[in-house]
Amino acid sequence: MTKLNIKNMVCNRCIKVVKEELEKLGFTVTEIELGDVEVKENLIAEDYDKIREVMNENGFELIEDSKKKIVEEIKKVIINKIHYSDEPGEENISSLLEEKLNKDYASLSKLFSSIENITIEHFVILQKIEKVKELLRYGELTLSEIAYKLGYKSVNHLSSQFKKHTGLTATEFKSTTSLKRKPLDSIK
User: Fold this and answer.
1) Helix axes 66-79, 120-138, angle to 10 degrees
2) What are the domain boundaries of the chain?
3) Is domain 68-186 in CATH 1.10.10.60, yes or no?
4) Cβ neighbours of residue 86 under 8 Å, at least 6 residues apart?
5) Which pTM does this prediction carry?
6) Nearest CA to 34 among 86, 93, 76, 81?
7) Could you report the per-residue pLDDT of 11-47, keeping only the tens digit for each?
8) How many CB atoms lie within 10 A of CB 152?
9) E strand or H helix at 32
């Protein structure tokens, strides 16, 4: 059995593509979730080469460096919390990361910044802004409800952060149909 770490797996469609591609190569996927895949086989160097090539062709990357694996774990925790959790976003991200990765936040933060060239805090803000864009496009929640869902202390804080990062107010964004959201794997 071999565990693989895959960069840029950010949604259920990514999981489907990675699983299908590995199965086309003849591997048995026993477990798969964002960023992580477990195959039944014990892999040899040639297998890694094939997997690396097919992942690159599909916009993914096989992560083999231990520091990059930790950074991808950090991203996975943040993306899951912001984009896929139904619980309000009140939970402190630093505490969540320490709990999930079993490492102190200061070392995680330093490592993340050294690899990604942005802070964890900035990455969280960018992820939240993309989630706000998504929720505004759906038009099902008020800005107050969005602020609560994403753990903002106030609507004003969300509004000022949104304006700072997009150059638009939430109302202006909703009325502008030409603006696109960014894919989660390209947010930096």
Assistant:
1) 40
2) 2-64, 68-186
3) yes
4) none
5) 0.75
6) 76
7) 889 999 999 999 999 999 999 998 899 999 998 889 9
8) 21
9) strand 29-33
